[in-house]
Amino acid sequence: MASMVERYGWAVLIGLLITFAIPWFLWGDSRTAFGLPLWLWWHVGWMLLAAVAFRLFARRAWGLWIVESEGETA
Amino acid sequence: MSVPLQLGIVVGYLFVALGVGLAAYRVTERAAEDFYLASRTFGTVVLLFTVFATLLSAFTFFGGPDTAYAFGPEWILVMGLMDGIVFAVLWYVVGYKQWLLGQRHGYITLGELLGDRFGSRAIRALVAGVSLFWLFPYVMLQQIGAGGALAALTDGALPFAGGAALITGFMIVYVVLAGMRGIAWTDTLQGAFMLLMVWTALLWVLAAVDGGVGTINAGLAASNPEFLALGSDFYTPGTMLTFAVSIAFGVAMFPQVNQRFFAAGSEGVLKRSFALWPVLVLLLFVPAFLLGTWARGLGLEANIGAGESILPVILAEYTPPWFAALVVAGAIAAMMSSSDSMLLSGSSYFTRDLYRPLVDDSISERREDRLGRIGVVVFATAALAASVWAEAEAFGAVTVGSVLVEIGDLAFGGFAQLTLPVVVALYWRRTTAAGLAAGIVVPQAVYLAFNFLPETAAGPIVLFSDAYLGWGISIYCMLLGLATTVAVSSVTTPSPDANVDGHFGLRAD
User: Membrane spanning segments where (chain A) (predicted)?
Assistant: First the structure.
């Protein structure tokens, strides 16, 4: 059974992944690195990070909020 | 020289697809579950690519790079948020739950699932009816795109109607024969092919440009310095979020995507594909949209406003004709892989959720299978007729590119209105049939009114505008749908026929 910390932790993590998929703090920034805008590198890194986070979720918490475990209602 | 070559490659591609379809026909059982869902047997690669190829309409190859060419590459971030993250989350929240329910109760369509959940044939028909309402113009869009592409490819030797009819006829034969299994197999081939093409194109251009990316960026800095900076008058935070959220939520309810939630072979397949979404999005959209952006830095010209696309221009400039032809074949493949899946799903919504419950519920598996195939023919032919009519009447002067983006986005927004009420129905026991029905009908009506009625000033506010405070109307309608579902459910009582226990307290597979 997922602990409270895990239940809310995953929701917060997914919320963060959504919130910073667009790097708001680079708004108006036109610096480039290796030929591409910095914000595009952020995108590359963020997508990879999201893939790792989703993989972890699938391994450790799959079924959270959906399947019943020990008397919780789904 | 390059026109026969391009046509040859396109026709060659069609025959390869037909071969795959025939192979699938040989192993297909004559039953609706197999025709529509390949008997729920998809593995990770096939499921991921069939959903992905289905999502990629002509937009990836033409509309997307054109947008990047015209407004800058920020659309990459919209796609990342939309398909890489928000859709992946919906893949879990909507998809996994639907899959579990499909395993338990044998559902084939979303309407069937909800109809059973609420013990209501009206709900079933409503979900199918609303879905078909948006799906039909979207199929037309693909046909208009294909007809236009073939007409452009042959310099008008094959007129628009002829091209659209050719592609539609081919798809009918193909879908009727192959069913879901064949479509998924060709989708997998097409998806892999598209990835390969778009990266090869990007590297090719990079290698062919003297001075590489340095030259390109210098050109950009001179012509469009705003392209490298994040954000612009076009890309405001409200616009980017409106697009990302309403398209991602819309995708989850598109029949051909939603139905694939049922088709996964196992829970492991869903888990693996869930984690691969952001990677696939990264691999495909970054190169496609960079090509459009770079074309701007290289000083290439395409009159987007007059219906030209930038991708063929940059390919013609830096790659050999055979390669450009392969990419055009890839683009037509993308249109077809979206349309064939839409035809199949459209047919299943019609036969299972409208014809069966409302006309004749006693038909055999075999008859339903045949009826499904007839449904494909009817749906495709009607959409073709409407496309040819629309092209002749209305689209003559308007650009194919902008029409693609506009109607496409309207359909996505229309489907997006379904998502939140459906999520409420999936997760909240107290949801009632009346609540869901109101939650579907009200935002649809408002969304349509605000998109199609002329703007009207009513005192200090303007009615029927398509955006308020920088946010698109679809976002407001989605929230309205959520509120309506919850509010109406709270004041109505659930039907005694509702199958609540069958939908909650699920166990993992």
Answer: 7-27, 39-58
Helix, strand or coil for residue A22? Answer: coil
B373, B176 Cβ separation under 8 angstroms: yes
Q: Which residue has the tokens 């496409």?
A: B408
Supply the pLDDT for residue B334: 73
Amino acid identity at B171: M
Q: What is the pLDDT of residue A71?
A: 43
Asked whether residue B16 is assigned to any structural domain, the reply reads yes
Phi, psi of B213 (to 5 degrees): -70, -25
Domain ranges across chain A? 4-60
**Per-residue DSSP letters for B240-294?**
HHHHHHHHHHHHHHSHHHHGGGGGBSSHHHHHHHHHHHHHHHHHHHHHHHHHHHH
DSSP-assigned letter for residue B506 = B
Check whether A74 has a pLDDT greater than 50: no
DSSP SS3 for A32 = strand
What's the structural domain count of chain B? 1
Residue B44, CA distances (Å) to A57, B264, B272, B276, B476 in order: 17, 8, 7, 10, 35
Distance (Å, whole) CA B503 – CA B426 = 8
Q: Name the residue facing A54 among B217, B278, B290 (closest C-beta).
A: B278
Q: Higher-confidence residue: B480 or B389?
A: B480
Residues 20-49 of A with CB under 8 A from B: 21-24, 26-30, 32, 35-37, 39-40, 43-44, 46-48
Look at the alpha carbons of B2, B4, B6, B9 in this order and tell me if their dihedral is positive or negative.
negative
Domain with B209 in it: 2-26+54-397
Look up the CATH number of the domain holding residue B76. Answer: 1.20.1730.10
- Does B489 map to a domain? no
Question: How high is the mean pLDDT of chain A?
Answer: 87
A16 touches chain B (CB under 8 A): no
Give the integer Cα–Cα distance in Å for B194 and B285. Answer: 11
B451 in a domain, yes or no?
no
A51-70 as b/e: b if 16+ CB within 10 A: bebbbebbeeebbbbbbeee
What confidence tens digit (pLDDT) does each residue in B417-474 have?
A: 999 999 999 999 999 999 999 999 999 999 988 887 778 888 778 888 878 888 889 9
Q: pLDDT, tens digit, for every residue of B67-96?
A: 899 999 999 999 999 999 999 999 999 999
| Burial grade of B317 (CB within 10 A; 0-12, 13-18, 19 or more) | middle
Mutant choice from A46, A54, A68 vs B, greatest count of B C-beta within 10 A: A54
